């Protein structure tokens, strides 16, 4: 096992990337990022979903708009396809209630209990800063 680790370290140090590049050239990355933006508690909640392929955002959905918007030419085609399916879009629009408001209600009591619990003691001020 020790020899294998040593060999891997030597290969990394010497830059043996040509073999790795040939082997990994077929890889791609697809990612969907989603998030909830809260303004004034749950009075105004916005759900945002971003679809990313090879580090480029193809399309996004904002719950305030209620439709997918293409950020590239391919993303525009996908957005038109998804926007044309009423059941799919209804499911996506419900994400504000299903994901954002639901998780807010679950996590808020826990987060409010912990607010300032330890952080205030660790923040230096005044003479501790040397001012």
Automatic annotation (TrEMBL):
It is found in: Membrane. The keyword Membrane applies. It comes from the Eukaryota. One of its GO terms (biological process) is adaptive immune response. GO terms for cellular component: MHC class II protein complex. Keywords: Adaptive immunity, Disulfide bond, Glycoprotein, Immunity, Membrane, MHC II, Signal, Transmembrane, Transmembrane helix. Its main location: membrane. It is a single-pass type I membrane protein. Residues 1-22 form the signal peptide. InterPro entries: MHC/Immunoglobulin, MHC_I/II-like_Ag-recog, MHC_II_a/b_N, MHC_II_b_N. Residues 34-108 form the MHC class II beta chain N-terminal domain. This is HB22 protein. It comes from Promerops cafer. The gene is Hb22.
């Amino acid at each position: 096992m020790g020899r294998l680790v040593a060999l891997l370290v030597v290969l990394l140090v010497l830059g043996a990337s040509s073999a790795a590049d040939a082997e990994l050239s077929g890889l791609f990355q697809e990612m969907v990022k989603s998030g909830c933006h809260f303004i004034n508690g749950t009075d105004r909640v916005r759900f945002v979903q971003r679809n990313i392929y090879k580090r480029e955002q193809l399309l996004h959905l904002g719950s305030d708009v209620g439709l997918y918007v293409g950020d590239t030419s391919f993303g525009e085609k996908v957005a038109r396809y998804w926007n044309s399916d009423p059941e799919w879009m209804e499911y996506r629009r419900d994400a504000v209630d299903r994901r954002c408001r639901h998780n807010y209600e679950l996590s808020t009591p826990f987060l409010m209990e912990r607010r300032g619990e330890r952080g205030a003691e660790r923040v230096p001020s005044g003479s501790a800063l040397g001012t």
